[in-house]
Automatic annotation (TrEMBL):
Gene from which the chain derives: RASGEF1A
UniProt keyword annotation of Ion transport present: no
GO BP field: Ras protein signal transduction
Protein name: RasGEF domain family member 1A
Location of the N-terminal Ras-GEF domain: 48-177
GO molecular function: guanyl-nucleotide exchange factor activity
Lineage, top ranks: Eukaryota, Metazoa, Chordata, Craniata, Vertebrata
Length: 457
């Protein structure tokens, strides 16, 4: 059963303050009202117990646009702007909003009611402000930016005396440009730290250079490494925006386990990462924890029987239990629920940290999107479905805004962000170099790998 938005929409963070609370500016603060609709007909909205559950796309668009006596609920603004891109591109929606605004403006101009016209213009600016704050990257598109400028130009024509609306538009545009610039800088930074996968590993027992360090040479404290991983996770999460979550597919790679030549050191490395994963779990960083466990379960690592025989696996067994995929990751979801409840009542930033397994979160949203139809038999948009998708994404966005309380270690951060990421082929080569093949199948695989790499060289 879907949860209703009024009862379940979590308190938003600073980024979404304009969506869920009124503006502090008295001059442009829109009044609240209720837009009347019928209970049937293709153009109407359908309410159940006072809550919107469906409507035609056209009616939902009209419900987004303010009037002199009405301003949409902020949870509706967020939910509709998020879900509308399933049906129409943002620039097309903005064009339609602009058209509806123009029609209403012309009606007010015909009545020569300047006060109402100015009030209506202020509400339109407020709606656009909330749109640009919650979904700024809709306006990277030139068409959307052109539509935005066209709408704001029209609404400023009634503001020649006091300039209040013009001032609000100026502040909105400044904030939007700053958001777009920040995203551009973030993309440049990502490219700077992007590490290409290593296509082939060391061959025939080749030793790494003396200057090449593994993670234990940089950090030997599992808690500190878990904290630095949490830093990276939170920084990456903070760059994710609601619209991104409709499309993102995440992949995790493995590194470090095969860079160690001696069995004793490999054993220490595995035990170290087990402790790191446990500390990640305690912090609430489930994504890094899952990445570590998944890396250890990769075939090139799992086949190192001699190494694993020396590892104390009791801690690892507990971690695997938490991430047991049976019953749709029931154990993980229980732990996530506990971390979420802790976050909601937390007094410190450390207790607020919740970093879910990103792949599972995306799959949950995708599954929710797929099993429930976008349209009902009467042709209406199934808005009840989008309330729930919006609720889950909104909760995720509150987690992304938590400030990491741990001190950043630049040396460890640099290592984690720039260490090479090995391809599957390179991992298998390193694995066979660490522990030779034990059966005919492994011997054939090792022979084929060596032949492939030597021929490539």
């Amino acid at each position: 059963m879907f949860l209703e938005p009024q009862e379940t929409m979590p308190q938003t963070s600073v980024v979404f303050s304009s969506i869920l609370r009124p503006s502090c500016s008295a001059e442009v603060q829109p009044g609240m009202g209720e837009r009347g609709v019928g209970a049937d007909g293709s153009g109407d909205l359908i309410f159940q117990d006072g809550r919107l559950i469906s409507g035609s796309l056209e009616a939902l668009m009209e419900h987004l646009v303010p009037t002199v006596d009405y301003y949409p609920d902020r949870t509706y603004i967020f939910t509709f702007l998020l879900s509308s891109r399933v049906f129409v591109p943002p620039h097309d929606l903005l064009a339609r909003v602009g058209h509806i605004c123009l029609e209403q403006r012309q009606q007010l101009e015909a009545g020569s009611e300047k006060a109402k016209l100015k009030s209506f213009s202020a509400k339109i600016v407020q709606l656009l402000k909330e749109w640009t704050e919650a979904f700024p990257y809709d306006f990277q598109d030139e068409k959307a930016m052109a539509e935005l400028k066209a709408i704001t130009h029209r609404v400023t024509q009634c503001d020649e005396e006091s300039g209040t609306v013009k001032k609000a538009i100026g502040q909105m545009m400044q904030g939007l440009l700053l958001s777009l610039a920040a995203r551009g800088q973030l993309q440049e930074l990502r490219e700077k730290f992007r590490t290409p996968a290593v296509d082939k590993g060391p061959i025939l027992k080749a030793k790494p250079p003396a200057t090449q360090k593994d993670i234990l040479g940089i950090c030997c404290d599992p808690l500190v490494l878990a904290q630095q991983l949490t830093h990276i996770e939170l920084e990456r999460l903070s760059s994710i925006h609601p619209e991104d979550l409709m499309q993102i597919i995440s992949h995790m790679d493995s590194r470090d386990k095969h860079r160690v030549v001696k069995k004793k050191h490999r054993t220490r490395m595995l035990e170290f990462f087990i402790d790191v994963a446990r500390e990640c779990f305690n912090i609430g960083n489930f994504n890094s924890m899952m990445a570590i466990i998944s890396g250890m379960n990769l075939s090139p690592v799992a086949r190192l029987k001699k190494t694993w025989s020396k590892v104390k696996t009791a801690k690892f067994d507990v971690l695997e239990h938490h991430m047991d995929p049976s019953s749709n990751f029931c154990n993980y979801r229980t732990a996530l629920q506990g971390a979420t409840q802790r976050s909601q009542t937390a007094n410190s930033s450390r207790e607020k940290i919740v970093i879910p397994v990103f792949n599972l979160f995306i799959k949950d949203i995708y599954f929710l999107h797929k099993i429930h139809t976008n349209h009902l038999p009467n042709g209406h948009v199934n808005f009840k479905k989008f309330w729930e998708i919006s609720r889950q994404i909104h909760e995720f966005m509150t987690w992304t805004q938590v400030e990491c309380p741990f001190e950043k270690d630049k040396k460890i951060q640099s290592y984690l962000l720039t260490a090479p990421i090995y391809s599957e082929e390179a991992l298998f080569i390193a694995s066979f170099e660490s522990e030779g093949p034990e059966n005919h199948m492994e011997k054939d695989s090792w022979k084929n790998l060596r032949t492939t790499v030597l021929n490539r060289a």
